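Re: [ENG-882] Designed sequences occasionally contain unexpected residues at chain ends

Forwarding the minimal case from QA. Structure tokens:
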């Protein structure tokens, strides 16, 4: 039984309809369009006999009715929130992969030995509350309710307030922190979001490691003044200072480290006023934690030196930090075995994007499958991936899920699907 590209297309295109303005997809966490997308997934899962549970941190979990929720499950998950004017596939492909696997398991009476679970993590993009991987961090016990309450959106509404105000399931939410035993293994299918698979003409990527990341918000405070009447030597121009800092982020991002300034807000943003206050973001990534640390330190030093040279105030706040992770060899073995059994050409590769899997790797064995991004584009309306490629990714994932789930009734690792996770331990 193979995954259906047509069912996957219908799922993704229906969820794409759950969007605010556009162009592209606008679906911020806990907005009506966000819950409409979750409700669509709940409808599909409900039809297969899956029960929906919402956690106190706003994540959504699906397990078959009658499942013992304390029993360690094999989980497939990702996210449904999007960056502003984002694409149809980022996160959605992974949630839909979970739905399609639930369909395929339902069609085969040899369900897994372990419960199967689909998880929708909230606020993976950080586009509303400013911190990436928020839901999965909370799920893995790395964010406290107090920290969540301090995450605010542009209107000053906190993450927990927005959740409580937007969802009547908040009142009946269940514990949000996964116990070490709740989830026995976690898999995530995701679009690659670059050109590696397309260039290598590989159908599938098996992810070896996910980059670590550090995100900051920097505010330079200078002196707002008249753009015409103020001599250059008397200025404290916060935007001119930020310009130099932004160039230094690019110059200091050397080797494999990548640095991005994606957000810039200059106040009062008027042509004839010297900007008194400028806010900008800094996003640094590397799979090597030492390199990430070294570049981070150099960038922060430069940001502070520029402020001192120009007699400005600099306020620097870290808004997200996730360590790089190596994904679990046992599960990667199963994915390799599954792809080889199906005769699917795969590539083993790192991930330059952050994913919920890296937070789940902190509490359970985790692994990822990539499917190609056409032209390598993502985080934009042009984001595109063939539905047939996603179906192939689901086929590979199913083999590893069945191996991790064990034989019916057995509840143990092992032979189902022929791709038993290899016996060697985690290297
Ligand atoms: O930032 C990321 O890598 C992810 O898209 N949240
Ligand atoms: Mn994503
Ligand atoms: Mn993304």
């Amino acid at each position: 039984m193979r995954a259906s590209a047509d069912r996957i297309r219908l799922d993704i295109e229906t969820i794409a309809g759950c969007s605010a303005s556009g162009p592209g997809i606008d679906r911020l966490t806990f907005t009506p369009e966000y819950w409409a997308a979750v409700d669509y997934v709940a409808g599909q899962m409900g039809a297969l006999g899956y029960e929906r549970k919402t956690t106190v941190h706003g994540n959504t979990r699906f397990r078959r009715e009658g499942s013992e929720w304390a029993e360690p499950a094999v989980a497939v998950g990702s996210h449904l929130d999007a960056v502003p004017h984002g694409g149809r596939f980022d996160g959605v492909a992974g949630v839909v992969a979970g739905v399609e696997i639930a369909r395929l398991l339902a069609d085969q009476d040899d369900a897994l030995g372990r419960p199967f679970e689909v998880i929708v993590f909230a606020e993976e993009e950080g586009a509303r509350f400013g911190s990436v991987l928020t839901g999965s961090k909370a799920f893995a016990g790395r964010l406290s309710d107090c920290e969540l309450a301090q995450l605010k959106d542009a209107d000053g509404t906190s993450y927990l307030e927005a959740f409580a105000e937007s969802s009547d399931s908040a009142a009946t939410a269940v514990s949000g922190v996964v116990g070490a035993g709740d989830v026995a293994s976690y898999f995530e299918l995701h679009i690659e979001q670059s050109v590696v698979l397309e260039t290598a003409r590989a159908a599938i990527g098996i992810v070896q490691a996910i980059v670590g990341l550090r995100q900051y918000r920097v505010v330079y405070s200078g002196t707002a003044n008249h753009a015409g009447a103020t001599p250059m030597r008397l200025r404290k121009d916060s935007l001119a200072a930020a310009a130099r800092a932004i160039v230094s982020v690019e110059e200091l991002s050397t080797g494999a480290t990548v640095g991005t300034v994606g957000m810039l807000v200059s106040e009062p943003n008027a042509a004839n006023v010297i900007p008194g206050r400028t806010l900008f973001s800094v996003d640094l990534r590397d799979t090597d934690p030492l390199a990430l640390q070294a570049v981070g330190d150099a960038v922060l030093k430069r940001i502070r030196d520029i402020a001192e040279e120009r007699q400005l105030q600099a306020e620097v706040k870290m808004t997200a930090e996730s360590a790089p992770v190596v994904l679990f060899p046992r599960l990667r073995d199963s994915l390799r075995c599954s792809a080889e059994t199906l005769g699917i050409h795969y590539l083993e590769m790192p991930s330059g994007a952050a994913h919920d899997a890296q937070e789940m790797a902190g509490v359970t064995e985790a692994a990822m499958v990539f499917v190609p991004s056409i032209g390598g584009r993502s985080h934009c309306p042009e984001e595109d991936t063939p539905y047939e490629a996603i179906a192939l990714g689901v086929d590979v994932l199913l083999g590893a899920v069945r191996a991790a789930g064990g034989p019916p009734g057995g509840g143990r690792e092992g032979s189902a699907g022929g791709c038993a996770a290899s016996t060697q331990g985690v290297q």
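QA comment: On inspection the terminal residues look reasonable. The CA atoms of residues 239 and 270 lie 12 Å apart. Proposing we downgrade this to a documentation issue.
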